[in-house]
Write a structure and sequence with these properties.
Aspartate Aminotransferase, domain 1; 4-stranded antiparallel beta sheet; 175 residues
Length: 175
């Protein structure tokens, strides 16, 4: 997303591929719970049959919002990509590199930070929550990620800056 355009398996013509898309991430509207599929008509029909038996309906306002989102997709994606790139640049400039290691995301808006102090992520998340900072414990992704936290770049830069300051204070003073 940041450095290159995304390529779907459908574009690569890999077997019987069906692409499933959501409006949650691309358009930053997770509450709509709406998406669409693209693929071979027979495969799509099977997905439609499944969805019809598991969901009652998608509200009309959500359907209209989804249609409008598709109409302005290119511009919205360009704007959102720019916003997240700016936030990632800010993050990289302001994270305390003595306290954390991380891998730069190539397209997502989450950064996984690994504490250099080998701090349990659940304990850290609880302490940060008491200071008004919400992050997600890496332990939820498995034992291998026990010392990681996941931070989202979805908040404005001012909030991200405050969060990074609190994270650094808590980790630096960890006992």
């Amino acid at each position: 997303m940041f450095d290159t355009e995304a390529v779907s398996f459908a574009e690569l013509r890999v077997g019987d591929t069906i692409s499933v898309y959501s409006f949650s991430k691309t358009f930053s509207i997770p509450g709509l719970r709406i998406g669409y599929v693209i693929g071979d008509s027979e495969l799509v029909k099977r997905v439609v049959d499944f969805v019809a038996s598991t969901y009652t309906s998608i509200p009309l306002f959500a359907q209209k919002a989804a249609i409008r989102a598709l109409e302005v997709r290119r511009e919205v994606v360009r704007q959102i990509r720019s916003i997240y790139r700016e936030r990632l640049d800010f993050f990289e400039k302001h994270i305390d590199h003595r306290l954390y290691r991380y891998v730069k995301p190539r397209g997502g808006f989450y950064v996984f930070l690994e504490s250099t102090k080998n701090i349990d992520s659940v304990d850290l998340v609880l302490r940060l929550a008491k200071r008004g900072v919400g992050v997600f414990p890496g332990a939820a992704f498995g034992e291998r990620y026990r010392s990681f936290i996941r931070i989202s770049l979805t908040k404005p830069i001012e909030a991200l800056g405050r969060a990074l300051k609190v994270i650094s204070e808590v980790v630096e003073n960890w006992m």
